[in-house]
User: Which sequence fits this backbone?
């Protein structure tokens, strides 16, 4: 009987300690560990298109003029650089690749 009380007390103490511990925090995974989209699902992309006048139209409709290197300044003053492969490197680290239609596809 004494053994039953000891076992019950140990189980109860374990339950109390578990209830007082720090809760598990769930949220967005760290950058680079986000899950890949499931096969067959559509991945949303944004497009930067040529405006036909030597500039580009951004996904939000803003038009920008490209400079001699193919880069341009955003309305907020940040600069978008075009790299050697022809892709655009955005200030947030995203990379927009050429789409063979004079524009770019962005993540």
Assistant:
């Amino acid at each position: 009987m004494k053994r039953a009380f000891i076992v019950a007390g140990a189980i109860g103490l374990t339950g109390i300690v578990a209830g007082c511990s720090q809760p598990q925090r769930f949220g967005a995974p760290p950058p680079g560990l986000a899950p890949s989209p499931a096969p067959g699902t559509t991945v949303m992309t944004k497009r930067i298109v040529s405006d036909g006048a030597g500039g580009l139209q951004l996904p939000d409709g803003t038009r920008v003029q490209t400079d001699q290197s193919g880069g341009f300044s955003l309305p907020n003053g940040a600069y978008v650089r075009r790299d050697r492969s022809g892709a655009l490197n955005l200030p947030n680290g995203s990379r927009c690749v050429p789409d063979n239609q004079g524009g770019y596809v962005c993540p």
Observations:
- The chain has a mean pLDDT of 77.
- Strands lie at 46-50, 55-57, 63-65, 72-73, 79-82, 88-89, 95-98, 104-106.
